[in-house]
Amino acid sequence: MNKIKKYALSELYDMSSGISSTKEQSGHGAPFVSFKTVFNNYFLPEELPDLMDTNEKEQETYSIKMGDVFITRTSETIDELAMSCVAVKNYPGATYSGFIKRLRPKTARIVYPKYMAFYFRSELFRKAVTNNAFMTLRASFNKDIFTFLDIYLPDYHEQVKIGDMLYSIECKIQKNKKINDYLSDQSSMVA
Asked: Mean pLDDT for the chain?
């Protein structure tokens, strides 16, 4: 039986805010991770669907590397706060929204990205966030919440086994959704 170890989230990850952009920058330029992409996916898509006109310095500051976790930093309701999405590859030249926080692993081989994607979407983590969040006009995930959160992890090799299995299942689910959407589109064209 593997032991579960408790870590402070801030011990394992550095947290950074995303880029502040203007409406004029949107829709052209380099790949961009939007709030919607993070909210709707466990993993960043192979090709990022959004674009943002950014310069080299911004692309360096707001870079996206394998293992990065993106968390929505604001929401109208507490239960939708801190939805997460994980990068399982590098995205050269890409940046991420100011409505998102990036968690970048501090060290290798303590957290496995595919495992963490499911951990951060788990009821255990979601409950910890909602218990520590505060609500004014909007719920907000900030440095205070980040420093109060603990996470509970099996050893790295166990994370790899679990993460790879769950990732494989998620890939099949997404493939089935694409097939169903395609078939639905085809049947509506025939009708």
From this structure: 91
